């Protein structure tokens, strides 16, 4: 394929799942009619959801899910060694995500509660960047297919992608949503990276911060505002910790 | 009853046909229509800088395109983006325009990967220019730091083409390392044919470097300046022109006779996107070329 | 200017007639805030009943019907190394009902930039030309300060402008199209009684202004207080969230992004409205940011509105609607900031 006279390489891609719901991989795999165009652009050599190929010569690795077990750590390190570019994909991989909720409880309690007496080998929830170097973080819970394709185009062109630096409020206002904070609901939109088109506030839910913090976000001011609006410390803490996107923001964590 | 709001289809208006002329600022309406142009030649200058020679494809658009030294164009790679770039060739060259571009990001990076024959879009020219007419009969001191030499090539060509109208021409050119020097293949020609005095200086020399070592301001020791009769044109990083212009002002050159070119983020070139505002001034309309007096009075300029 | 009156019943018929032939935009409410107040916005209406003529203030201004938040400026067909650019201006006749005097004045300010200065903007021009505006008077809210900005009345820039005088509207007529439409609904000449009632209503409106903002020496103050601590005080609270610029009827600046489809056969050049409070508004390649701090960016928002624009067009880029103040979670409003500036000056 050519673009502006430049012949585009067809990079080899692998998609790997770790601990997570696989929702992000499904995002890529759904709408089969578009997949052909994707295959024209990149060669998918390792992606359990859509093919039985298991080649190890991928140049770009997409990591889905967070890292919990020792064997996952080892597998991830191996992938890192092979991949020229490693992309953490989705809130679990980028932040720890929903899985992280269990970090609030003691690990042995969690194991007992979930697996009863079965023996299970699981460690603390870690985001990918806690274990290996991450080149690109593709945010979202789940990721969005258009944004994934946008990223793939950048990878094919060899251009560093620039995600929006500004917070969700910009998109929320552009969709003429009513601000849910005016309606008495909690929202982390002012400190969360935009790009999701404010779907949650659009549906009268506050933002939970799944896309991670916006750049140079003013947490202190937002938390002050939430307190003034009468939200309790517990309520604020619950929201802020939900996706593990804002560690160290609340004084109680420090 | 007639309650339909009449349709005014501006796609059919006379001002929408024919090639746009960006020099007719107040009547131009086809603000986004670019001139499709071919990259006819690419000259690799350093590891990160290339000179792109670009020729507007449509003959009538090419003939219409005129600019003055110091003006810039918006260069577009469809699907990639659009960036402001100073014109680095002679205004009298009506065949192609030269753009000297450093690879720093998305658009410039893609451009560096392109090959001759690639098609790009250009809109312009935009912005203010160096007032070459005002300098007639005087000495001109051109001072460039790093990539700042790119916008200076246009006035250098101009001076050569009108050589008898100007007195002494001096170029001071400083870079960090010898490998960063641009257009050294033209230095001979500038000195011999253009009859101008060119002094270069580097901060970190290598074993082959025979000329001066130090900061660009050190070159002032090597020349004599007649403040009454000299105009200065300064291009380079902001820290540089602050030092230089202060020095020149102290030896008596009026601030209104020093010209610098400012850089800001730009998304339109037409005073609409506001991204280039410095204080209350639009860099794309009232600049990029400003006299130093004006710059000193701009909030947040330097 | 011509004046007539139209009964509310006939006005209803007129709107219903307009609805049959055109797209009609008007104030509608969807949600309620904590205090039980309706939250209004300008949206497409499908029947007269959806139109809320007693609305207070729309949360966001109707500017997006003239300057959309996002718009494709050009599209391209790409093939190997060559491409073809295509530009189509959207021609979409429509009616907007219920715009306030301040909102129409805001458009007049945008006209200055978009139509009456260098490089007139064809996208805006196409929308402005194809929109019929039916304005509507109201009693100011507690925080409206349009009076101080001299934008509480409007004399042009609309088709019709309505003032409620009881059982009928007093109508100022400003375009031929509007005149023809109005006359199909038994609009009657203004009687002496109408005129008296109109005067009374106008007086009533005038008496309701509560908020004043002193802008007499504001342009100079912006320079004198350039280094003032008050910028840091407010900037410290600012979330750099851009809400103020998005809801503002006069903010117009933008960014451009280009993208292709997955097969690199089509490309678009897209404009999206931006805000000078956003982190990378003035950032350039390789990480340099000319306005790195929230308080500097906030200062420049005010600098553009009350100094830069005044210099260029002899008027401020603010109509006193206080939408930004309402939308700002951090409580930053022009009234509060300007009062602060004036106070520091007096000290
Ligand atoms: C008047 C003027 C003349 C210039 N002349 C030259 C020249 O002759 N040669 C040269 O190499 N460079 C020049 N530049 C700088 C050049 O415009 C930037 O390097 C270029 O925009 C970077 O784009 P990018 O997409 O590669 O970088 P990215 O970092 O990917 O930038 C993304 C976007 O940010 C904006 N942007 C980023 N940096 C700048 C910047 N410095 N100035 C303006 N907009 C920016 C652009 O809109 C760009 O598309 C000039 C800038 C101005 C304002
Ligand atoms: S609902 Fe949330 S995202 Fe939307 S404007 Fe309010 S705070 Fe911002
Ligand atoms: S609004 Fe917040 S939680 Fe919802 S998708 Fe966007 S970033 Fe995620
Ligand atoms: S005040 Fe800021 S956001 Fe508004 S138009 Fe000016 S630069 Fe843009
Ligand atoms: S700055 Fe605020 S008060 Fe002024 S016009 Fe904009 S939104 Fe209204
Ligand atoms: S002033 Fe308020 S609305 Fe504007 S960017 Fe700052 S916090 Fe957001
Ligand atoms: S570049 Fe858009 S206003 Fe100057």
CATH class of the largest domain in chain B: Alpha Beta
Extract low-pLDDT stretches of chain B. Answer: none
When the domains of chain B are counted, the total is: 2
Tell me the β content of chain B: 25-35%
* Global structural class of chain A: alpha/beta
Number of domains of chain A: 2
Blueprint of the fold:
The complex is a heterotrimer of chains A (254), B (302) and C (347).
Chain A: E1 2-3, E2 6-7, E3 12-17, H1 23-29, H2 32-41, E4 43-47, E5 60-64, H3 70-82, E6 85-89, H4 90-95, H5 107-115, H6 128-131, E7 136-138, H7 145-157, H8 169-174, H9 199-202, H10 219-228, H11 233-241
Chain B: E1 35-44, E2 49-56, H1 59-64, E3 72-77, E4 81-86, E5 97-102, H2 106-113, E6 119-126, E7 139-145, H3 149-161, E8 169-175, H4 187-192, E9 197-202, E10 212-213, E11 230-235, H5 238-250, E12 258-261, E13 277-278, E14 281-282, E15 289-291, H6 292-296
Parallel strand pairs in B: 7-8, 7-11, 8-9, 9-10, 11-12
Antiparallel strand pairs in B: 1-2, 1-6, 2-5, 3-4, 3-6, 12-15, 13-14
Chain C: E1 2-7, H1 8-21, E2 23-32, E3 38-44, E4 70-79, E5 82-86, E6 94-99, H2 101-114, H3 122-129, E7 131-136, E8 160-164, E9 168-173, H4 176-183, E10 188-189, H5 192-207, H6 218-224, H7 229-237, H8 243-247, E11 254-260, E12 266-273, H9 294-313, H10 323-327, H11 334-346
Parallel strand pairs in C: 2-6, 6-7, 7-8
Antiparallel strand pairs in C: 1-9, 1-10, 2-3, 4-5, 4-12, 8-9, 11-12
Helix pairs in contact in C: 6-9, 6-11, 7-9
Describe the protein in words.
In chain A, the strands form two sheets. A five-stranded parallel beta sheet of chain A has the order 4-3-5-6-7, with helices on both faces. Chain A has a two-stranded antiparallel sheet with strand order 1-2. Chain A has 254 residues and is of the alpha/beta class. In chain A, strand 5, helix 3 and strand 6 form a beta-alpha-beta unit. Helix content of chain A is 36%, strand content 11%. Chain A has two domains: 156 residues, NADH:ubiquinone oxidoreductase-like, 20kDa subunit (Rossmann fold); 74 residues, no CATH class. With 302 residues, chain B is an alpha/beta fold. Chain B folds into two domains: 96 residues, Elongation Factor Tu (Ef-tu), domain 3 (Beta Barrel), CATH 2.40.30; 165 residues, Nucleotide-binding domain of ferredoxin-NADP reductase (FNR) module (Rossmann fold). Chain B is built from six helices and 15 strands. In chain B, the strands form three sheets. A seven-stranded mixed beta sheet of chain B has the order 10-9-8-7-11-12-15, sandwiched between helices. In chain B, strands 4-3-6-1-2-5 form a six-stranded antiparallel beta sheet. In chain B, strand 11, helix 5 and strand 12 form a beta-alpha-beta unit. Chain C folds into two domains: 206 residues, no CATH class; 129 residues, no CATH class. In chain C, the strands form two sheets. An eight-stranded mixed beta sheet of chain C has the order 3-2-6-7-8-9-1-10, with helices on both faces. In chain C, strands 5-4-12-11 form a four-stranded antiparallel beta sheet, with no helix packed on it. In chain C, helix 6 packs across helix 9 and helix 6 crosses helix 11. Chain C is globular, with a radius of gyration of 22 Å. The mean pLDDT of chain C is 93. Chains in contact: A-B, A-C, B-C. Chains B and C meet through loops of B and helix 1, strand 4, strand 5, helix 3 and helix 4 of C. One iron/sulfur cluster binds next to helix 8 of chain A. One iron/sulfur cluster (SF4) binds next to helix 10 of chain C.
């Amino acid at each position: 394929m050519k673009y502006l006279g430049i012949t585009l390489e067809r990079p080899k891609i692998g998609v790997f799942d770790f601990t997570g719901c696989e929702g992000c991989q499904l995002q890529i795999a759904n709408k089969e009619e578009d997949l052909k165009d994707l295959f024209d652009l990149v060669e998918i050599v390792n992606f359990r959801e859509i093919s039985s190929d298991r080649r190890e010569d991928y140049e770009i690795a997409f990591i889905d899910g967070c890292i919990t077990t020792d064997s996952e750590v080892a597998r991830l390190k191996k992938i890192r060694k092979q991949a020229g570019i490693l992309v953490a994909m989705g809130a679990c991989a980028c932040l720890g995500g929903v899985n992280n909720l269990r970090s609030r409880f003691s690990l042995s309690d969690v194991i007992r509660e979930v697996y009863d007496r079965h023996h299970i080998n699981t460690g603390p929830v870690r985001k990918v960047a806690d274990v290996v170097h991450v080149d690109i973080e593709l945010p979202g819970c789940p990721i969005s297919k258009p944004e994934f394709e946008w990223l793939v185009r950048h990878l094919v062109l060899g251009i560093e992608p620039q995600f929006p630096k500004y917070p969700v409020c910009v998109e929320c206002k552009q969709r003429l949503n009513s601000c849910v904070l005016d309606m008495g609901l909690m929202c982390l939109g002012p400190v969360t990276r935009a790009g999701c088109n404010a779907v949650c506030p659009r549906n009268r839910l506050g933002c939970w911060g799944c896309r991670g913090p916006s750049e140079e976000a003013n947490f202190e001011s937002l938390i002050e505002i939430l307190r003034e609006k009468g939200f309790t410390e517990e309520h604020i803490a619950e929201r802020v910790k939900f996706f593990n996107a804002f560690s160290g923001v609340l004084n109680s964590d420090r | 009853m007639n309650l339909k709001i009449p349709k005014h289809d501006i796609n059919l208006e006379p001002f929408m046909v024919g090639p746009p002329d960006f020099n007719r600022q107040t009547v131009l309406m086809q603000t986004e229509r670019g001139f499709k142009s071919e990259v006819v030649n690419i000259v690799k200058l350093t590891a990160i800088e290339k000179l792109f020679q670009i020729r507007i494809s449509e003959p009538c658009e090419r003939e219409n395109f005129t600019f003055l030294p110091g003006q810039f164009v918006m260069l577009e790679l469809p699907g990639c983006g659009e960036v402001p770039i100073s014109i680095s060739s002679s205004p009298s060259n009506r065949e192609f325009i030269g753009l000297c571009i450093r690879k720093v990001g998305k658009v410039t990076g893609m451009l560096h990967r392109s090959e001759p024959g690639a098609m790009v879009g250009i809109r312009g020219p935009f912005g203010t220019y160096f007032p070459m007419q005002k300098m007639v009969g005087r000495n001109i001191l051109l001072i460039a730091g790093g990539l700042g030499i790119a916008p200076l090539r246009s006035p250098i060509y101009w001076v050569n083409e009108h050589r008898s109208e100007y007195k002494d021409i001096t170029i001071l050119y400083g870079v960090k390392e010898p490998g960063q020097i641009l257009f050294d293949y033209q230095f001979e020609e500038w000195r011999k044919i253009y009859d101008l005095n060119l002094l270069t200086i580097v901060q970190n020399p290598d074993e082959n470097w025979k000329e001066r070592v130090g900061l660009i301001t050190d070159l002032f020791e090597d020349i004599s300046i007649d403040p009454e009769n000299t105009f200065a044109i300064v291009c380079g990083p902001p820290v540089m022109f602050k030092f230089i212009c202060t020095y020149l002002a102290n030896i008596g050159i009026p601030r209104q006779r020093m010209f610098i070119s400012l850089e800001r983020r730009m998304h339109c070139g037409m005073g609409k996107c506001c991204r280039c505002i410095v204080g209350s001034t639009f860099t794309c309309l009232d600049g990029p070329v400003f006299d130093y007096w004006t710059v000193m009075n701009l909030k947040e300029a330097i | 200017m011509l004046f007539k009156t139209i009964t509310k019943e006939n006005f209803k018929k007129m709107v219903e007639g307009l609805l049959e032939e055109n797209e009609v935009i008007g104030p509608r409410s969807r949600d309620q805030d904590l205090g039980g107040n309706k939250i209004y916005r300008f949206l497409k209406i499908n029947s007269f009943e959806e139109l809320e003529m007693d609305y207070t203030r729309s949360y966001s201004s109707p500017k997006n019907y003239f300057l959309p938040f996002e718009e494709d400026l050009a599209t391209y067909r790409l093939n190997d190394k060559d491409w073809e650019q295509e530009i189509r201006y959207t021609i979409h006749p429509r009616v907007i009902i219920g715009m306030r005097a301040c909102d129409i004045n805001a458009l007049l300010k945008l006209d200055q930039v978009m139509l009456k200065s260098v490089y007139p903007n064809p996208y805006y021009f196409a929308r402005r030309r194809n929109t019929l505006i039916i304005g509507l008077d109201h009693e100011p809210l507690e925080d409206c300060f349009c009076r101080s900005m001299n934008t509480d009345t409007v004399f042009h820039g609309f088709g019709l402008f309505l003032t409620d005088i009881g059982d009928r509207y007093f109508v100022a007529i400003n375009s031929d199209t509007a005149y023809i439409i109005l006359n199909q609904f038994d609009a009657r000449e203004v009687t002496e009684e109408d005129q008296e009632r109109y005067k009374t209503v106008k007086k009533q409106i005038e008496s309701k202004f509560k908020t004043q903002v002193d802008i007499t020496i504001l342009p100079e103050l912006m320079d004198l207080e350039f280094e003032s601590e008050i910028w840091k005080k407010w900037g410290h609270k600012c979330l750099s969230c851009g809400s103020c610029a998005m809801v503002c009827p006069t903010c117009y600046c933008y960014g451009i992004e280009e993208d292709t489809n997955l097969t690199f056969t089509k490309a678009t050049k897209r404009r999206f409205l931006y805000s000078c409070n956003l982190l990378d508004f003035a950032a350039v390649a390789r990480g340099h940011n000319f306005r790195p701090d929230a308080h500097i960016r906030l200062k420049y928002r005010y600098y553009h509105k009350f100094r830069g624009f005044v210099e260029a067009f002899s008027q401020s880029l603010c109509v006193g609607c206080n939408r930004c103040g309402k939308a700002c979670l951090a409580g930053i409003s022009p009234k509060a900031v300007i009062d602060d500036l004036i106070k520091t000056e007096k000290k």
